[in-house]
Amino acid sequence: MSLKRLISNKTMAASAVLMTAFTSTSAFAQEAAAAATATAKPIDMTPIYKTTLFYVLAFLLLCLFVAIIGKALKVYELTRETEGKGKGINWDKINAVLFALFLIVGLYGVYWEYTVHGNMLLPEAASVHGVKIDEMLNITLIITTIVFVATHIVLFAFAYMYRYNKERKAYYYPHNNTLERVWTVIPAIVLTFLVLMGFLTWRSIFYKIEDPNNKPISIEVTSSQFQWDVRYPGADGVVGRKNYKLITAINALGIDFNDKNSMDDQVADEIVLPVNKPVRFSLVSKDVIHSFYMPHFRVQLNTVPGMTSYFEFTPTITTAEMKVKTNDPSFKYLLLCAKICGTNHYNMQKAVRVVSEQEYKEWVAKQVPYLTNDLRETFKLPLLAEPTAAPAAADTTAKDTTSQIALKK
Ligand SMILES: [Cu+2]
């Protein structure tokens, strides 16, 4: 096939595609206009914008558009060639300029991400170890940003500066031992520093030397689909044993009341922590793996069925102080689940409140004991007299007062 014939074929093909695109677009436009005048009200496109098909078609249309432009340019170049003229478009220059442009736009993108989205990160860490974690993150971010920016400037600037030029010949430079040593040793030192820092920080979080004068408060949190159950230790400071075999309708956590430590344990609707006091969470799960996640305290640990995991930390900022710091009167610390554990995972959360030690003492004294008279009956323990107060609740619950006998040993 001669070149001329090829060109005429390509020109024909390109014109045909352009014609089809143009006629179909105008046909669509006419139809839309006709529909609009017929009903005399604008068409609601919102449901169409929500479909995947719309975006797939839009993408295909874009591809078609790019292909048409490409074909048209190719036709232009081949025409020039057959007419004996020189190259019409200097692609080497265009590519070089695009590289330079990409560098500028990319670097601006990095700056924009840091300044705009950087502010959307979590507020300052509200725990002792959280500050260390943030420091580590910041150091890593500073080092990687410097390396990222420097290498990308070099990469794109070289692509621009050393674009093809027929006057120039590339210098053959296959190997340099010193250069290889430098770019191996420097990253090795930096990475060793980062890994060691991470290792030591991790050890300081998980291997604590217990101070007998400042013992942590033990709180147990049990996860299940889809809730968190909180158990406070009561006056003895120890949460009692539990056993999944003891789980019943009235003993949802399976607490073992043969263990003396369980007797004064309390249930709570929210997690309340005293500020600047260490707290040790024991975490268990009833069904699947959940993840105990308190972002403001930089705490995250899986809760696993069949084993207990622990996390000890010290909150440093009260909820009231955080409301002022974040300038948000509705600010709340939250416990969230960070494992995709089922359909209602997204809603698995619990409010956490950090208060002064005095407020904590007042709050904890008001919490309900886990051990009810029903449970006492099950575990064959002496029953207690029901409190005579709370008459509103008594209407619905107290059905047989004669059975509520105080049996004191
Ligand atoms: Cu969960």
UniProtKB/TrEMBL annotation:
Q: Which Pfam families match?
A: COX2, COX2_TM
Coiled coil regions in record? none
Q: Which residues form the signal peptide?
A: 1-29
Needed cofactors, names only, are: Cu cation
As its record notes, the protein acts as a catalyst of:
4 Fe(II)-[cytochrome c] + O2 + 8 H(+)(in) = 4 Fe(III)-[cytochrome c] + 2 H2O + 4 H(+)(out)
What keywords would UniProt list here?
Answer: Copper, Electron transport, Membrane, Metal-binding, Respiratory chain, Signal, Translocase, Transmembrane, Transmembrane helix, Transport
Predominant location: membrane
InterPro entries in the record: CcO_II, CcO_II-like_C, Cupredoxin, Cyt_c_oxidase_su2_TM_dom, Cyt_c_oxidase_su2_TM_sf
Q: Which GO terms describe its molecular function?
A: copper ion binding; cytochrome-c oxidase activity
From what superkingdom does this record's organism come? Bacteria
Give the EC class as a word: translocase
The subcellular location is: Cell membrane; Membrane
**Annotated ranges, domain Cytochrome oxidase subunit II copper A binding:** 214-366
Transmembrane stretches, by residue range? 53-73, 94-112, 139-162, 182-202
Q: Name one GO cellular component term.
A: plasma membrane
Q: What is its EC number?
A: 7.1.1.9
Write down how the cofactor binds this protein: Binds a copper A center.
Q: Which PROSITE patterns match?
A: COX2_CUA, COX2_TM
* Single Gene Ontology BP annotation: ATP synthesis coupled electron transport
Q: Where is the Cytochrome oxidase subunit II transmembrane region profile domain?
A: 114-209
Protein family per UniProt:
Belongs to the cytochrome c oxidase subunit 2 family.
Q: What does this protein do?
A: Subunits I and II form the functional core of the enzyme complex. Electrons originating in cytochrome c are transferred via heme a and Cu(A) to the binuclear center formed by heme a3 and Cu(B).
- The protein depicted here goes by the name Cytochrome c oxidase subunit 2
Give the originating organism: Pedobacter insulae
- Upper classification of the organism: Bacteria, Pseudomonadati, Bacteroidota, Sphingobacteriia, Sphingobacteriales
